[in-house]
C-alpha cells in the first residue's frame, strides 16, 4: 500500500473588505474549532520581514499584490485551519481561481460600520485625501466580487467577534447537515 501525505486544505477562508473583522473573527473561529489560524497579511509580514505599508510605499501596490498572491496560494495549499485573507486578495484573478472549491465566507460590512473600525489605522489604501470616500468607493467596487467568491455571506456587524464566529459556525453546520436546516 502506498502512503500519501493527507491533503491539507483550509477548513474555511474568510474574505471581505477592510474592517469586516476577518483577522479578529478568524482567530476566534479557529479557537472554537480547535484548529490553527493563519492571517495572510501576517504571513506576508513574517516572510518578507517588512510591514504592509512599507511594501506598498517602497515597492508599490502591484508588487504587493504579487507577494500577496504567492503567499495566499501557498497557504491555500498547505494550511489545514482557518485562513483570513487581506481585503484585496480576491481581486487578483489567480487568487480568485485558487479559491475555487474552497469553503469561503464573505464577511460583509457596510461602508459606515467598516470605516468606523479602520479610520486612523495605517492601512495604505485609505491613506487618501478623503479616506471615508475612498473606503466607500473601494467597497462598492469590490462587493460583487466578494459576493460571487463567497460560498455564503455573513453579516460582519452581527455582534461581537465571538457572535460573528458563532453565526459562521452555524452556517458551517448547516452546510454539513442540510437536513437539520428545517429543525428549529
Ligand atoms: N464584530 C466586531 N465588532 C466590533 N469590532 C470589531 C468586530 N470585528 C472586528 N472588530 C474590530 O475592527 C477592527 C478591524 O478588525 P480586523 O479583524 O483587523 O478586520 P479585517 O482583518 O477584516 O480588516 C479591529 O479593531 C477589530 O477589533
Ligand atoms: O483591502 C485591501 O486591499 C487591503 C486590506 C488589508 O487587509 P485587511 O482587509 O485585513 O485590513 C491589507 O491586506 C492591505 O492593507 C490591503
Ligand atoms: Mg485583516
TrEMBL record:
GO terms for cellular component: cytosol. It comes from Gordonia insulae. GO terms for molecular function: ATP binding; magnesium ion binding; shikimate kinase activity. This is Shikimate kinase. Monomer. Its EC number is 2.7.1.71. Catalyzes the specific phosphorylation of the 3-hydroxyl group of shikimic acid using ATP as a cosubstrate. Binds 1 Mg(2+) ion per subunit. Keywords: Amino-acid biosynthesis, Aromatic amino acid biosynthesis, ATP-binding, Cytoplasm, Kinase, Magnesium, Metal-binding, Nucleotide-binding, Transferase.
